[in-house]
Amino acid sequence: MDKSRIPFAVIGLNYGRWIVDSLLDRDQAGSHFAIAGVCDSDSGRASSMAQKAGVPAMTFEEILADPGIPAVGLFTGPAGRAGLIRQLIRAGKHVMTTKPFERDIQAAKDILREARELGCAVHLNSPEPITPPDLVVIDAWRKTHDLGRPIGCRADTYASYFEDADGTWYDDPASCPVAPVFRIGIYLINDLIRILGEAEAVQVMTSRIRTGRPTPDNAQIGILFRSGAIASVFASLCIDDGQRWSDTLTLNFERGTIYRNVGPLVFGGAESATRLSLLTQKDGTPVTEEIRCPKRSGQYQWEAFHRAINGEEIHTPADTVLSALQVVAAMARAESSGQREPVDGSQGESSSMSSL
């Protein structure tokens, strides 16, 4: 085995099967990590994936006890995930996991702090440990063109699923509040927090169009930010126009507008490319810019994870993680109450993470 590739086990193969595919591809995660084992509560699924990958099917306890596996991908449901991460980092494992991180805000805060104390990397695909290229460009344009204060944003994302109830956490409103937003719109919430700052209040609207699940498949939330900016996040599991997961943004500032992936992209290419456009004016003369980024927010930063395991100080942005979880908690309350709900404790929680 190439010694520069770190052995990596995958836990949770419903979504984790896509990570296995990435690990088997030397142009993706496999350029930095070598799959060493798989684990799933469904033994048949674990055996099938193990055979495909040419690695053993392992129990969670076997992965914990194996000193030859320093890195683990944890792709179970979000409820109680912090407890599993705690077991992994106390066994000396570095962890790559996915959004949404955890429903329990205090548990998420505690586990991120403990991971840093233990010297273990805990990375997510959203929010990413290193600010992605598209958000770097947005921040640069704000400063270079003196766009002023943020005023508002429309954010959209969608995919096309035909689902039946299966008893998983996707069916449970308590575990999966405002389901389309929680499942695929969380990327946009994380982006908006990085761009617009702390949220103050949330409102929710949902519908069920074709899903067989008891949770909705079409939703929109409104977010009021402490700055006064207002944003909407629309997420649907009912749209197929070849632009799935495009994570569209229209960002309005006092003196200009930035667009991300607004309008058609290369058919089927919205997942891997980002197009940014700027419109402003100077002394009555229009000023425009456009740039394409090969990578965008919401992607797994495998190289950064590899560097962190090898000792580089690259950490998950804990303040963004916790702020997003506070928005999720508020939208869960708003879905239940039908009212605008405050984002509790956002200022105190975010400032308290500055020491992490």
Task: Walk me through this protein's architecture.
By secondary structure, the chain is α/β, with parallel strands linked by helices. The chain folds into 2 domains: 6-129 and 300-312, Rossmann fold (3-Layer(aba) Sandwich), CATH 3.40.50; 133-298 and 326-352, Dihydrodipicolinate Reductase, domain 2 (2-Layer Sandwich). It is 33% helix and 25% strand. The chain is built from 10 helices and 14 strands. It has a 9-stranded mixed beta sheet with strand order 13-12-11-10-6-9-8-7-14. α1 runs parallel beside α2. The longest helix is centred in the C-terminal third of the chain and has 20 residues, at 318-337. It is globular and about 65 Å long. The chain starts with 5 loop residues before the first strand and ends with a helix. Residues 346-356 have low confidence and may be disordered.
Index terms:
Rossmann fold; globular; single chain; alpha/beta; Dihydrodipicolinate Reductase, domain 2; 9-stranded mixed sheet; 33% helix; 10 helices; 5-stranded parallel sheet; 2 domains; 356 residues
Furnish the topology, listing elements before pairings.
Elements: E1 6-11, H1 13-23, E2 33-39, H2 43-53, H3 60-65, E3 71-74, H4 81-90, E4 94-97, H5 105-118, E5 122-124, H6 133-144, E6 150-158, H7 179-196, E7 199-207, E8 218-225, E9 230-236, E10 248-253, E11 256-260, E12 274-282, E13 285-293, H8 302-309, H9 318-337, E14 341-342, H10 346-352
Parallel strand pairs: 1-2, 1-3, 3-4, 4-5, 6-9
Antiparallel strand pairs: 6-10, 7-8, 7-14, 8-9, 10-11, 11-12, 12-13
